[in-house]
Specification:
Radius of gyration: 24 Å
Helix content: 10-25%
Number of helices: 2
Largest sheet: 5 strands, antiparallel
Structural class: mainly beta
Strand order of the largest sheet: 4-3-2-1-11
Strand content: 35-45%
Order of helices and strands: HEEEEEEEEEEHE
């Protein structure tokens, strides 16, 4: 007579083998299994300009298998949420660059660089990057490491009111 442990052991192997598409020494991933890897993260900043104008700047960092990027949305409606924002989304896909556009009746200039960015567990860099947003030539948002001489000269040496930016939201 076999022991109860042997019976359970044989049954467990049969169940395992019946669910595998290959030999039992290969891992099997169910087609219904979804990985919970974070591929986007959004940060919402409230910015108060010297003109007393308030803006919401939403930065969404994303990572889709083979490509990383940054979306930026600028909105002047403080009551709007990041998902239902009236502003237009601008996708920044290069590792370094500048972009100029009109939004909220203002000239928006964005300077960014992620060529030396270090990532942790998510798509947002933790160091080695910068994002600078000018609104009508006034400094609106500064994030990251500003050691780029060109950016420092153009953006940070201008006389402007003290920077008033506040992180008000975070979404994964």
């Amino acid at each position: 007579m076999r022991s109860i442990g042997t019976c359970y052991s044989e049954h467990a192997i049969k169940v395992s083998d019946s669910n595998c598409s290959g030999p039992s020494n290969h891992a099997y991933l169910s087609p219904n299994f979804t990985l919970s890897i974070q591929d986007t993260v959004s940060f919402i900043y409230k910015v108060k300009l010297s003109t007393q104008k308030h803006l919401l700047i939403t930065l969404t960092w994303w990572n889709k298998l083979i490509f990383e990027g940054l979306n930026i949305n600028i909105d002047d409606s403080i009551s709007s949420s990041s998902r239902n924002s009236a502003g237009s989304v601008h996708q920044l896909q290069e590792i370094k660059g500048t972009s100029t556009f009109q939004s909220c009746n203002s000239k928006i200039e964005i300077f960014w660089g992620v060529s030396a960015a270090c990532l942790d567990a998510g798509p947002e860099p933790i160091r080695g990057f910068y994002v600078v947003v000018l609104v009508d030539s006034e400094l609106g948002l500064v994030l990251g490491d500003i050691d780029n001489e060109e950016i420092s000269t153009k953006c940070l040496k201008k006389k402007s009111a003290p920077l008033r930016q506040t992180l008000i939201g975070f979404s994964k």
